[in-house]
Amino acid sequence: VTVFVDASEAEEFAQVAFKPLNSLPYDSPGQTFVAFEKPEGQPTVGKFSNMLKFIYRE
């Protein structure tokens, strides 16, 4: 499981790291992360859209 982050409305922020989730069994919680660096001297406001991407295997 990965998170795709659309930061097109927060262009001053830069993605610096991500951590996908290797496996997510059915009906179980999990965590995946994306980290952004905020620019020096800029307000800490930005608009981000997130989409989860799954690869399903039986």
UniProtKB/TrEMBL annotation:
SUPFAM superfamilies tied to this protein: Clathrin adaptor appendage domain
Domain Coatomer gamma subunit appendage Ig-like subdomain stretches: 1-58
A Pfam family matched in the record: COP-gamma_platf
A molecular function GO annotation: structural molecule activity
A GO term from the CC aspect: endoplasmic reticulum
Superkingdom, natural source: Eukaryota
GO biological process, one term: intracellular protein transport
Name used for this protein in its record: Coatomer gamma subunit appendage Ig-like subdomain domain-containing protein
Lineage: Eukaryota, Viridiplantae, Streptophyta, Embryophyta, Tracheophyta
